[in-house]
Amino acid sequence: MGFWATLTDLVLPSACAGCGAAGRPLRRAVCPACEAELRTLTPFATSPDPAPPGFPPCAALGPYAGVLRSALLEFKERGRRALARPLGVLLGDVVAASAPGPAVVLVPVPSTPQAIRARQGDHLGALTGWAAWRLRDAGVRATVARPLRARSRADSTELSAAGRRAEAESKFGLRAPEVGRLRDTPVPAILLDDIVTTGATLAVVSARLEAAGVPVTGAAVLAATLRRRPLSLERA
User: Fold this and answer.
1) Could you tell me if 216 and 58 are in contact, meaning their C-beta atoms sit under 8 angstroms apart?
2) Element (H, E) at 104
3) pTM over 0.90
4) Which of 53, 70, 128, 209 has CA 20 to 30 A from 21's CA?
5) Listed residue (184, 192, 5) closest to 91, CA to CA
6) Of the candidates 147, 197, 196, which has an alpha carbon nearest to the alpha carbon of residue 172?
7) Are 17 and 33 in contact (CB under 8 A)?
């Protein structure tokens, strides 16, 4: 399905994934104006307020608003697969802005099997692949590891912060072989997600990996639901 969705996006005329305007030339599902707006975003350090215990240092490309929000929704919920590359490249830029060093392991937060079926693909896996490509293109030795697995659970979009944490704690498990491999490498691990809201998922996943002996250096996301003024990366 991913191939055909991408082919359809490239061949058939469609509205811009950022502003919704029709009849404009599109490059990877967004018009030139929206592409330019995405390129002006500067990664910043972000943390929910209040931050849940164990929340790792986190950088985001931008607030969950405007063109970025629209593009994410089109990609994640409406199957605009042509957005995987530009959004994934931008996610790689967020990791690069956090100065990971000469090598890094990218660890995507896994989706549940039911979410993958509903979205007809692993959207974060696709973003992670392009983020790794972007980092390797910039000279960083980037690899991808999947030490986490997600069990099917109820939708968490309507849960409170405490409810999201409880849901996350019961949702994620570990893949023993991948965990063992990561324990034996000195390369820092960076968690990847698309959006951070309450921070419960990143906090639980980070704590679970740390308890298993896998140090987590930080996290990178495309968008943050801002509850306070963001800090610059230099001040974080």
Assistant:
1) no
2) strand 103-108
3) no
4) 128
5) 192
6) 147
7) no
